[in-house]
Structure prediction request, 68 residues.
Amino acid sequence: MELYTFLRATADSWGLLFMFLVFVGIGLWAFRPGSKKTHEDIASSIFRNEDRPAGDPADPRNSQRTEA
Prediction:
């Protein structure tokens, strides 16, 4: 039982610290300065095809070619 007690105490203390650091890391990663454009793009993606439904990208009739 000595090994079990040691492993449990280690998991209780270091596991909690690890999970807290992962939580803080994810928060910092999500709010980093370089991600503002990505988050704005994702937030406005619902309004991209407001005037008409989005077409199937695999359908050749929905290609957005501009012919001069």
Q: What stands out?
A: Residues 2-30 form the longest helix (29 residues). The CA atoms of residues 32 and 40 lie 13 Å apart.
